Structures are given as structure tokens and as C-alpha cells.
């Protein structure tokens, strides 16, 4: 259990006074500062470096007004805060702050679903609302709107959108669905973005832009404010869906598959972003590694091939889903089948769903935590870390990235586990590293592999769409145009909005002046 | 972010999703906030604990859930469903909730407040005499 790690430049007496002041706002029971409390906010899947991100305490407001009061007190006592929605940023640091000693501002008690508007397809929610909560609300009230849900759906709808998480429906780019937010600024002032800045606008969650600069995306992956309410667009339930599934037998098949799918994605035949993953992710959810192989190095290709043959899996799994009117889906399916037929004799497995059938067969976002099974792959206290660069959605780029990454995994001795999620113009390549947190040799390898992959990607001009707190400075450093002009802009804005450096120091490599020496 | 499993891989979980939907449709999705009373042995409290178990633990610990699958692999299918276990004490449940075990992460006192955890732990550790009075927490019985 971690003992107290104070924020930089704060003595214990001042720290205790600050906690007392926080308790005056939220009540003593919602200021959490025991050793066990600190432990619960550490990076639960950390690759051996959890103690570099130990929080000093956590405070849990129930309202936006309480958030304002805490932020003002934090300025008074110079206490840094790390806002979290539900703290399930698993594989990216979970609930833990970047800078040790930071107090976690846990918004998990703010769980109101304030409005769901069926006619215009949106909801207004607080950050503590989880995917399961919103799904339950839509189901209980028979509201025919669908959510975009990430693979592991334990977390917050707001938090996931703010981290640019994604799902697999036509509304799959979650950050694109943000429309209108309420934000507590680092000085404690509350603002509403877009037309929410009018006191009486009916357009807050309909029209994203307002008048003048559009601010929503400035508060995404940033440390410029605490989002206390968010408008999110939801997808109308379609009449039907049509799934097309195929296993691709060879590693290089992903090259032509991406080239076939990208134009179909760009011209709207395929409206969702399919994730093409290597089949180790299936194997890892079904079985422990020890069942197949006990060697220290990367799982050999011939061992993987024998597992895939046993379970009748290809090297890659392709799962596409069409959403809309049945006739249109059928027409689009014919186009996709014809395009694939130029490269393979295989036929798609077809899965059809119609309104009224059980929703879990529809391709709608149905929350589950079951993909977390992968962390049992190496046994013990499992954990995972994802390296996720963005690259052009072209077969040549994907093939090169796949081969170079797999080679690095093999050189360093980690089992390759990758997927490519295809958007209209780009692909996100999630490379998963799964480990036993107590296996120091393996977690050392994983951190080494991660650092190597960041450098390799930067040489190609690729950065991650999101990263773990331990690597935020590394990734930010790769944005080097004009001697890191973007970082100077980000930190100029940071210092203007947050002169005391209260909110999330180091988030996304953006350090306030007061802590800039902490940059890795 | 974990890449989504292909359909073949998630097929076994679809029954879990269905069960979550069922739990929601019969009103288990939103239990009343637990009062800060101590957990007694009354059937009323076990009922409250059961609702909270579904809401706070059901993400993983109903039939077909990830915790159930993990426990089944480690301890056998007869000890996989947490709501049907007879070998767990309330203190053990409370401790594991806070510190985690194997793949299960720790839970903060904001995610599961102490007052709720008391009721959940009492429900899981309820005596045999109480087990006939409350429906299965597993959702696996008709």
C-alpha cells in the first residue's frame, strides 16, 4: 500500500488543510486519503511503474458547483488535480495521475442522465455515467437510439469521448459525437460551449459551432478544464443490419483487404469502422498462453498457426457490419462481396438482424467487459498496454507497419497482438502488450518495446491517437514541426488559463509553467 | 483500449449481454442508493445487497461475464458464480473489492461506497437459511 506522496512544493500541513477544505465542500466521506484509497487509484495494469504515478488523495464532488469550489480551493492551496470520469482508462493509466502527488478529482458520483432526446438523437450526461448506465436507460425507457461502445465498456461515456475512444457503429468516432459541453475552467469559472453560451438556446446539442471559435475539441485530450456535462449524438436505431464475417488465412492478406475496404469506407458503402485483428486476440480471450507454449520469447509463428488450425481461425478476422434499410444493406453487401471476390474464393458468413430481434445480435453497441479476458494470457496479476499509432488507410502503409512492428515484438520477445481499425481516411493500429504485472523481466521488455515503437512510428511520421501516462512526453516530443511550435502554443494557452498549474499537469505532454521541470 | 474481438470470439458473451439486458428490464440496473445502516441479516437487506451486487459487480460477475469466466478457469465452474458461492466471508469480499485479485482491479470508495459494500458483502456471504429466500444472483436459473 502506498504511503503519502505529497504534491510538489506542498508541505504536509498545507496538504492536510487543503483536504479539510475539500471536505468542507463535499463532506468528509468523499475525501479519500488512506493508503488503501491511494492504492485503488493507482494504475491497476501498470507495466511495473505504478509508483511513478501515485496520487496523494482523491476527492469526489457530486455537482458541477462542487467542482467549481474544489478547483478554487486547489488554486488557493496550490494542489494539482487530475480529473477522471470513472477511472477506467485501462491500458492508458486507468485512474492514476501523470505527476505523483496529484489529487484525483473523481467525478464518478456525477451520474445524471439529464436528457435523452429521441427526435434529434442526442443525450446530455454527466461524466460519471458509464456505458452500462446509458445502455440501461435507453433499454428501460425503450428509446430507439444506439450508442457507440468501445470494446471494453466498463468506463465513462464522457471520459471515453474525451480520450478519443471509438466504437464500431456508424457513430464510431466518439469524439465526433460531442456537441456542446459545460466546463469548469482552471480558475473555477463555468462556461458552456457552442450555443450553450446563450442562456436560452434550444440548439446546444444540435449545432456544434456557436459563434466565433468552436471550443469543444479544445477540451478533448487537454488539461484546460473539467468537463461537467456533455452533449453526445446518438444514432437512430436502423431498420436492419447485415454482418459480413471472414477469416483471412495469411498475414499479408491484410494489405489487399485494407485496399479493398478503404474506398468502400470513403464512398459510404461501408459506414462503420471495422477492426481487423490478428487472431491472437481470440486465442487470448479463450485460453492461457501456458496451454500452448512456455518459452520466454515471442510466441513462435508455427505454434500460433497450429492453434489457429485447431480452432479454424484465420490469421486475421474481418467483421463488417452494414446499418440501415434492408434493401440498401443488401445492395451494399453485393458491392463488398464483389470487391472481395477479386482476391479470395472464400465467401462471407452473413449475419442478418431486423428491428425487434435481440439487440445483442444487431451490431449495436452493447456494453461488455469480456474482452478483458486477454489479461489472463500470461497468468498471474495480468495487465495490458496498447501502442496505437495512426497511419494512412492504405495497404502499403498497413503492411509495412504490421511487419516492422511484429519484427520488434519478436526481437524483444513479446507475443505480437495487433489490430487495424479502418476509418475513412486513416487506420488506427492498436498493438497490445499483455503481461503478468509481477513478472519484472516481461514488464521491462514491454516498456522497452513501447519506447522502440514510439521512435519507429515517429520516423514514419506516425503518432499515437492516445497513449499511456508514462509515455505522454515521448509522444508529444514527436510533434516536432518548427521546433515544437505546437507544444509552445499548447503551453501558452495552458499558462494563460491555468497560471497555478492546477489541472492535470503533464496530461498529453502539456506541462504548466510551475511544473515544467517535471517533463520526462 | 482493447481491440474488439471478432464475432466468433464474442459469441460466447452474447448470452451475458442478454442477461444484462434482462437484469435491466426487471429493474436491477438502478438500485436505490444504500442507506448508511449496518447490514443486518434481514431478507430485506439481502435483497438490497443483491440489487447492488447486480449494479456494481454485474459488469463481470453475472453468468457469462468476464469475472465468472476467469473464476471458472481458476477454481472450476461450480465456484465461478460469485452470487452462488458459499465459501466466502463478508470480510474477504470487502478486502478483495478494495485491493483486487489477479485480473480483478481494486474498486475505489467512490465507485462502491463502504455502505454499499457492506450490503453486497453480506449478500454474498449470506447464510444458507437466506439462500432460499432470495432469487439467484447469477441469473442462470429459470
Q: Which terms would index this structure?
A:
heterodimer; A: alpha+beta; Uridine Diphospho-n-acetylenolpyruvylglucosamine Reductase, domain 2; Uridine Diphospho-n-acetylenolpyruvylglucosamine Reductase, domain 3; Vanillyl-alcohol Oxidase, Chain A, domain 3; 4 domains; 8-stranded antiparallel beta sheet; 19 strands; B: 142 residues; mainly alpha; Cytochrome Bc1 Complex, Chain D, domain 2; globular; disordered N terminus; disordered C terminus
Quick structural summary:
The complex is a heterodimer of chains A (520) and B (142). Chain A has helices at residues 12-26, 35-40, 64-77, 131-140, 157-162, 253-266, 280-286, 301-310, 326-341, 395-412, 440-460, 472-477, 481-497, and strands at residues 31-32, 57-59, 81-84, 103-106, 113-117, 122-125, 145-146, 178-184, 190-192, 226-233, 235-236, 240-248, 275-278, 316-324, 349-354, 382-387, 390-392, 418-422, 426-436.
What does this structure look like?
The complex is a heterodimer of chains A (520) and B (142). Chain A has 520 residues and is of the alpha+beta class. Chain A folds into four domains: 12-106, 2-Layer Sandwich (Uridine Diphospho-n-acetylenolpyruvylglucosamine Reductase, domain 2); 113-233, Uridine Diphospho-n-acetylenolpyruvylglucosamine Reductase, domain 3; 240-466, 3-Layer(aba) Sandwich (Vanillyl-alcohol Oxidase, Chain A, domain 3), CATH 3.40.462.10; 473-518, Vanillyl-alcohol Oxidase, Chain A, domain 4, CATH 1.10.45. Chain A has helices spanning 12-26, 35-40, 64-77, 131-140, 157-162, 253-266, 280-286, 301-310, 326-341, 395-412, 440-460, 472-477, 481-497, and strands at 31-32, 57-59, 81-84, 103-106, 113-117, 122-125, 145-146, 178-184, 190-192, 226-233, 235-236, 240-248, 275-278, 316-324, 349-354, 382-387, 390-392, 418-422, 426-436. In chain A, strands 12, 13, 14, 15, 16, 17, 18 and 19 form an eight-stranded antiparallel β-sheet that branches. Chain A has a five-stranded antiparallel β-sheet with strand order 5-6-10-8-9. A four-stranded mixed β-sheet of chain A has the order 1-2-4-3. The radius of gyration of chain A is 23 Å and the shape is globular. Helices cover 49% and strands 0% of the residues of chain B. Chain B is built from seven helices and no strands. The radius of gyration of chain B is 15 Å and the shape is globular. The interface between A and B is large, with 77 and 44 residues.
